[in-house]
Specification:
With 249 residues, this protein is an alpha/beta fold. Helices cover 23% and strands 26% of the residues. The longest helix has 11 residues.
Amino acid sequence: METQLTWYGQSAFKIATPGGKVLLVDPWLTNPLFEKCAEEIDALKRVDLILVTHGHSDHVGNAVEIGKKTRAKLVATFDLSAAIVTALGYPSELADVETTGHIGGTLTLLGGEIAVTFVPAWHGSGVSKEETAPSVYAGNPAGLVIAIRGGPTIYHTGDTDLFSDMALVSRFHKIDIMLVCIGDHFTMGPDRAAEAVKLVNPRQVIPMHYGTFPVLTGTPEMFNRELKQRHVKADLRVMKIGETIELSE
């Protein structure tokens, strides 16, 4: 079995590993673009891990609901994990030290089938129970490097701007797939995202965090032009909302 990747829109992905484990990353399934969100949430009978990059509602998304339903363990940095538990009600027994780390640290999970390394991101991370409620401190945002045994190594940038230390990610990890935000306004846009891809040098790049709201003006077409201008070698794969693709090692 190949690793399977499903995009739900915004920065939400499902990863099914060759060993049959199921991971959700930034699981905002009820975003405006994913029309089959209710059916998909109902169909998620098994989720092993829920990984969250930072505390904003379009990334925490449906993590608590799905976590309570499936008993998935929460993978996040220390402050973010504490905020999701205390402010949003994620079951504390599913957010213990085994799956809680911090930037620069690597967690070996699911019997060694998954290794998750937290890497920096430039953004915010406050958690709010309601849109009008004050934010709860949730530490620094993070990107995630997800290494899958028998599968690819995936770098999910989270929400971020371009920064030069992105080049260090590929010094320690050979990145096969880079999931990169391109929407602009709240994150880097297509030009800075293309420069980030050049620094990381993945085998394949998949754009995310665009088109969900009118202010997210970056598009895959603009991103493709910027990649070509920089002679980036990575293969661009543009996914459709709800699409599942297979990823080779």
